[in-house]
């Protein structure tokens, strides 16, 4: 059986120092199925190859799919990479049994792997960026020219709402980043997966189906909690999720702020501008800005527009109405 695990580890690119973890999360009886599914395969193909009853293979395949070990494309199944498996297990809170040291090790593997993978996607032109910041709807409502300017120089579209409105299905899931990194106590139930991504999660029994109205309520709560709205993409999956992100846990904001991956996160199509005459130097906006664009220097507000990503969190925290939007 050890040879089978070693073969599987090689197939799914599992580092040798994580072989014990691989053995602990995948029952030995299911390893032959995962080995056979190195390419897209049907349960019928697997049953024939392994000489097992089709009914048993279908049950095992269904379990592997629900556990996040394999991907499904209609009637075909394929074993996920070790990174993909770990991404799912961490993000769904299924590795809590690990000792703190072992968990920290696998979290580091996950983040370093994600950086390598998404750097490659962007370098190869498969993705323009991993994600993009969306201006909060609450910020747009606060903007003093929102209703007067129509669609002129002031951007009036709520892009987050437009993304949601175009989607045909919504699944509310726990924030995979906050479950993975556990660096804060911000709300967990804030991530909205869309369309095919939502369908797959619901089929796996992850999250719950919600309405467009519930989506809007979640975004409003996220704004109040100081979370940045971000649309997440992957190759072939544009805007597959609308997340509400903190800088300490979000994989993309960490990549931007901690690993200097400025090409990962696109800025919103608006930027904020200050009215110094109205500013009362309360510094609420400094606390809300996760991008470091606003600082308190010698009890004076200093704003660097080059660092503004247009999220709008500063606008909804300003009691003086000193911050507005303009087109980037």
Provide the descriptors you would attach to this structure in a database record:
328 residues, 13 strands, Arc Repressor Mutant, subunit A, Alpha-Beta Plaits, 14 helices, alpha+beta, two-stranded antiparallel sheet, elongated, 7-stranded mixed sheet
Brief synopsis:
By secondary structure, the chain is an alpha+beta fold. The protein has three domains: 1-80, Arc Repressor Mutant, subunit A; 120-266, no CATH class; 270-327, Alpha-Beta Plaits (2-Layer Sandwich).
What does this molecule look like?
The protein is α+β, with helices and mostly antiparallel strands and 328 residues long. The chain folds into 3 domains: 1-80, Arc Repressor Mutant, subunit A (Orthogonal Bundle); 120-266, no CATH class; 270-327, Alpha-Beta Plaits, CATH 3.30.70.20. Helices cover 41% and strands 18% of the residues. It has 14 helices and 13 strands. The chain has a 7-stranded mixed β-sheet with strand order 6-4-5-8-7-3-9. Strands 1-2 form a two-stranded antiparallel ribbon. The chain has a two-stranded antiparallel sheet with strand order 10-13. β1 and β2 (76-79) form a beta hairpin. Mean pLDDT is 91; it is low at 145-156.
Ordered list of secondary-structure elements with their pairings:
Blueprint: H1 2-12, H2 19-25, H3 31-36, H4 43-50, H5 54-66, E1 70-73, E2 76-79, H6 82-91, H7 100-123, E3 131-134, H8 137-142, H9 159-166, E4 170-173, H10 176-181, E5 191-194, H11 195-203, E6 208-209, H12 212-224, E7 228-234, E8 237-245, H13 251-257, E9 265-266, E10 270-274, H14 284-288, E11 294-297, E12 300-303, E13 323-327
Parallel strand pairs: 3-9
Antiparallel strand pairs: 1-2, 3-7, 4-5, 4-6, 5-8, 7-8, 10-13, 11-12
Helix pairs in contact: 4-5, 6-7
């Amino acid at each position: 059986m050890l040879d089978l695990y070693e073969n599987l580890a090689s197939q799914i690119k599992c580092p040798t120092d994580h072989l014990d973890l691989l053995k602990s999360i995948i029952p030995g009886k299911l390893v032959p199925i995962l080995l056979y599914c190195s390419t897209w395969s049907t349960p019928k193909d697997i049953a024939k190859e392994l000489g097992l009853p089709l009914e048993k293979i279908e049950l095992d395949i269904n379990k592997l799919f629900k556990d996040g070990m394999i991907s499904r494309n209609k009637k075909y199944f394929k074993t996920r990479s070790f990174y993909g498996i770990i991404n799912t297990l961490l993000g769904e809170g299924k590795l809590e049994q690990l000792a703190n040291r072992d968990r920290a090790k696998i979290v580091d593997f996950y983040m370093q792997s994600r950086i390598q993978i998404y750097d490659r996607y962007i370098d190869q032109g498969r993705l323009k960026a991993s994600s993009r910041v969306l201006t909060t709807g609450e910020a747009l409502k606060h903007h003093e020219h929102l209703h007067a300017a129509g669609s002129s120089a002031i951007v009036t579209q709520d892009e987050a709402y437009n993304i949601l409105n175009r989607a045909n299905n919504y699944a509310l899931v726990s924030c995979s980043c906050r479950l993975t990194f556990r660096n804060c106590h911000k709300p967990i139930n804030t991530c909205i997966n869309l369309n095919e991504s939502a369908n797959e999660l619901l089929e796996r029994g992850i999250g719950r189906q919600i309405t467009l109205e519930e989506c809007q309520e979640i975004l409003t709560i996220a704004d109040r909690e100081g979370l940045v709205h971000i649309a997440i993409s992957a190759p072939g999956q544009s805007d597959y999720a609308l997340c509400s992100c903190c800088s300490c846990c979000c994989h993309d904001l960490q990549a931007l702020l901690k690993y200097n991956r400025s090409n990962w996160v696109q800025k919103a199509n608006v930027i904020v501008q200050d009215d110094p005459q109205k500013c009362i130097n309360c510094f609420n906006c400094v606390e809300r800005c996760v991008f470091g664009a606003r600082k308190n220097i010698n009890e004076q507000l200093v704003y660097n527009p080059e660092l503004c990503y247009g999220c709008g969190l500063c606008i909804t925290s300003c009691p003086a109405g000193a911050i507005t939007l303009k087109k980037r």
